[in-house]
Specification:
single chain, alpha/beta, Rossmann fold, seven-stranded parallel beta sheet, two-stranded parallel sheet, 9 strands, globular, binds NADP nicotinamide-adenine-dinucleotide phosphate
Amino acid sequence: MALKRAKAGGVGRPLALVTGASSGIGAAYARALAARGCDLVLVARRGERLEALGAELGAAHGVVAEPLVADLATEAGLAKVERRAAASPAPAWLVHAAGFATRGAFHEVDPAKIRAQLRVHVETAQRLCRVSVPGMLAAGQGSLVLVSSLASFMTSKHYVSYAATKAYLNTLAEGLTIELRGTGLRVQALCPGLTRTGFLETDEYKDFKYDKVPAWAWMSAEAVVAESLAALDRGRGPIVVTGLVNRAFLGAVRAPIFGSALCKLIDYLSRK
Ligand SMILES: NC(=O)c1ccc[n+]([C@@H]2O[C@H](COP(=O)([O-])OP(=O)(O)OC[C@H]3O[C@@H](n4cnc5c(N)ncnc54)[C@H](OP(=O)(O)O)[C@@H]3O)[C@@H](O)[C@H]2O)c1
């Protein structure tokens, strides 16, 4: 007889719903929040990875981590996660880390990929925030973390759709911060730079010129998440750029002449 799985958030532990939990930054959030005593709903398409992570977190921290297999690029998948976020108990944390890159000239990118990116990055963020906020307001606390990117600030070739969707997340986080001030809710758009994750193992990146990027330009997913949570704890935000190197880089990109030279270098490294 199959054992009935315990429901995440069912015994009074805070509940965190994490998208993109099967890999990289999302998995690092799941580990960090489990270490803080949260039960979890782990969302992604690769169910076997979610099962393995759930078992690991249950054994390490005594929390319940419930896999929720869903393709957020589909209406059915997104609606399934939306229903879970709206159900009781309400999540105390919403971390939206699911995402993927589209590389290449905007007019040459497969339109289906652009539609999927809009759904996964933009529509998912909007709908999951929309259904999570009422429960958080009722509880008088909650954290909304949207994983954006350093790319959201850069007008560079080859990432036009990606950068535009991430810029949306920054604006959403800024607007929600203003609207939710004084309610106990915290909002963050996290903007990592180059981070060692599965993101760079996808087909989009197989020809990326990694050897031209120095080791100090990279961060680990764990370091990125530690900065995100520390910034929330200190009340900083809503836009958080991780790592000294990335903050310096952003300053340089915004400088008039040097900035355009730097963008040309990025274009060269990113060209397909
Ligand atoms: N790595 C970097 O250098 C970097 C830099 C800046 C920002 N970011 C952002 O960080 C976030 C996390 O990426 P990562 O670096 O951790 O990459 P990753 O290791 O490839 O993780 C991406 C996650 O998104 C999930 N995902 C992708 N498409 C999905 C879909 N249609 N439905 C459901 N889940 C989907 C993947 O799960 P499944 O494949 O199992 O569905 C996976 O868990 C992304 O939003 C990315 O834009 C990454």
